[in-house]
Specification:
single chain; alpha+beta; Phosphorylase Kinase, domain 1; Transferase(Phosphotransferase), domain 1; 2 domains; nine-stranded antiparallel sheet; 11 strands; globular; disordered N terminus; disordered C terminus
Length: 381
């Protein structure tokens, strides 16, 4: 935690301001600005399609929805560590000015490409808007090399927590289908809804955030293109060790749309059978989820394969509510040959045909994959 705080603390007084607070088992940070921002500077901040506001060696880039954020807001926010990855740390932060919540991603020092390339890439990603993507509000580059991305805060957490939190009842198939369909729509938009396709590159349950309505929001998309080569390889290796990476990517070192489809298929299997893709066998080898499914099918034990939460505690059979069709779709996504895997638009179409019945008031309907979703980049189908 000390290193993470040190990255944020700016200016010559950083040693004095370094704090490491522990409260109720959570780590907290308090960030301080390197200089005061005048009222005139605050009032002059405006959104201009991701154009930067620069003051000295600081840079603040606003995106739609984050126009009112100032350097003071970002650096004075106190926050709680939500998670860490090979390329940075995510914080839940409270704004002192109005008590609003934001999420901050602090990129680890030394993991990103050259500053100009990194900022240009962030500006591109920051313009993307879709109802199933976690959107950026702003980006801050500090005088000591700090790189902070500011997001909307999603309160419920991520899909991994939802699936495996023992302190909460596991969600039923209606909610999980809704989450899977939303994630598929977000991924399809990245692949096919923009003039230049965006590869997610690091899709996993931790990067699928869930809001209060059980809608999915993909995070961390396109970040692999912002990393330097060593950090990109480290990210891919981490994804492989967690069971989400398509087998061909470790050889090619370059994710693509079909490798994203593979990762989505693993997530679908994870939802259906309730097992982590990074489980280890007696030889400490990763248990391959597609192979687990194949073995159950060959042994004619498919009724034992599905998660009890999916089957409603055993009150439903796997043939109900399209579960077998979703399983078949997931296995298609995980096909060894990339050319055989469906594209994400087809995955969306298949999931839309499979609606858990009956639809409860808590399930409702999520918007279809259409051009209604807004982005500052050109939308094409």
């Amino acid at each position: 935690m000390g290193e993470a705080i040190a990255w944020i603390i700016i200016g010559s007084v950083s040693a004095v301001l370094l704090l490491g607070l522990m409260l109720v088992g959570c780590s907290y940070i308090t960030c301080r600005p390197s200089r005061a921002v005048s009222d005139s500077e605050k009032s002059s901040t405006s959104f201009n399609k991701g154009q930067p506001e620069q003051n000295g060696c600081e840079q603040l880039v606003h995106f739609e929805g984050g126009e009112g954020l100032t350097v003071d807001d970002i650096l004075n926010a106190s926050g709680e560590v939500l998670g860490k990855s090979s390329y940075g740390t995510v914080y839940k932060a409270r704004l002192q000015r109005n008590g609003g919540m934001i999420a901050l991603r602090l990129f680890r020092d030394g993991c990103i490409r050259r500053s100009e390339e990194f900022v240009s890439g962030i500006q591109e990603l920051g313009l993307i808007r879709h109802s199933h993507l976690l959107v950026m509000q702003a980006f801050y580059a500090g005088p000591s090399g700090e790189n902070l991305v500011i997001y909307d805060y999603i309160a419920r957490g991520n899909l991994e927590q939802l699936l495996y939190n023992r302190n909460r009842a596991a969600p039923g198939w209606s909610k999980l289908h809704r989450i899977a369909l939303g994630a598929a729509r977000g991924l399809a938009y990245l692949h096919s809804g923009l003039q230049t396709p965006i590869i997610h590159g690091n899709l996993k349950t931790k990067n699928i955030l869930i809001d209060e309505n059980y809608e999915a929001h993909l995070s961390d998309f396109g970040f692999h293109e912002l990393m330097n080569q060593s950090s990109k390889i480290a990210m891919l290796e981490a994804s492989a060790s967690q069971g989400y990476l398509a087998p061909e990517v470790l050889k090619l070192k370059k994710p693509n749309t079909k490798s994203d489809t593979y990762s989505f298929g693993i997530i679908l299997l994870e939802i259906l059978i309730g097992r982590r893709p990074d489980e280890r066998d007696s030889a400490n080898q990763i248990v391959d989820l597609p192979m687990v499914v194949k073995n159950f099918v060959l042994e004619e034990r498919i009724s034992e394969l599905f998660s009890p939460a999916i089957l409603g505690g055993g009150t439903r059979s796997p043939t109900e509510e399209g579960l077998l069709r979703v399983l078949q779709l997931a296995m298609g996504c995980c096909a060894p040959s990339p050319s055989v895997r469906p594209d994400m638009r087809e995955v969306v179409r298949q999931l839309e045909k499979i609606c858990p019945a009956p639809l409860s008031p808590t399930y409702g309907f999520s918007p279809q994959y259409t051009s209604d979703d807004r982005s500052s980049r050109e939308f094409v189908l």
